[in-house]
Amino acid sequence: MKKSVLTRYRTMAYVTGVLLVLLTLGMIGKYALDLSGADGFTKVVSIAHGWLYILYLVFAFDLGSKAKLPVGRLVWVLLAGTVPTAAFFVERKLTREVGPLVVREGEPAAAKA
User: Fold this and answer.
1) Cβ contacts of residue 48 below 8 Å, gap of 6+?
2) Residue 33 and residue 90 in contact, taking contact as beta carbons nearer than 8 Å
3) What's the rounded Cα separation, in Å, for the pair 29 and 52?
4) Taking a C-beta distance cutoff of 8 angstroms, is the pair 82, 107 a contact?
5) pLDDT surpasses 50 at 112
6) For the chain, where are the E strands, in sequence order?
7) How far is it, in rounded angstroms, from Cα 83 to Cα 26?
8) On the CB side of 76, how many CA atoms lie within 13 Å of its CA?
9) In 3D, which of 91, 108, 9 has the Cα closest to residue 55?
10) In a designed cystine with 26, which of 39, 42, 62, 99 is the match (CB 3.0 to 4.6 A)?
């Protein structure tokens, strides 16, 4: 597996996680604290999170299929972008497990197997 596959997944996991935390804070401000301006903030962040979550799904599925993750594990990775802060923990654990499968440039794929 190429390093770029893991890098794309990690980047989108962090972006999705940060946006979801911001969205959660915006919702708290909008509904619990009745802050002015929170409505516009939550609208923008929710749209951004929604579109970028789709990209996260594509990259996570690509990583999961190339790393040959079990279906249950792959589903958990895919859903991690919907639970605030879960993406950070799942990304860290998955990176540790999948890291040894990454092939460096110029190195034959069979050398890592």
Assistant:
1) 19
2) no
3) 23
4) no
5) no
6) none
7) 15
8) 12
9) 9
10) 42
Contacts of residue 41, defined as CB under 8 A and 6 or more positions apart, other chains included, come to 26, 29, 30
Supply the Cα-derived Rg of the chain in whole angstroms: 17
Tokens matching residue 64: 């999961």
Residue 16, token pair as written in the block: 């999705």
The structure's pTM equals: 0.83
Enter the tokens of residue 28.
Answer: 């708290």
The identity of residue 77, as a single letter, is V
Residues 39-95 have pLDDT tens digits of 999 999 999 999 999 999 999 999 999 999 999 999 999 998 889 899 999 999 999
Buried-state track 36-75, b at ≥16 Cβ within 10 A, e below 16: eebeebbeebbeebeebbeebbebbeebbeebebeeeebe
Chain centre to alpha carbon of residue 16: 5
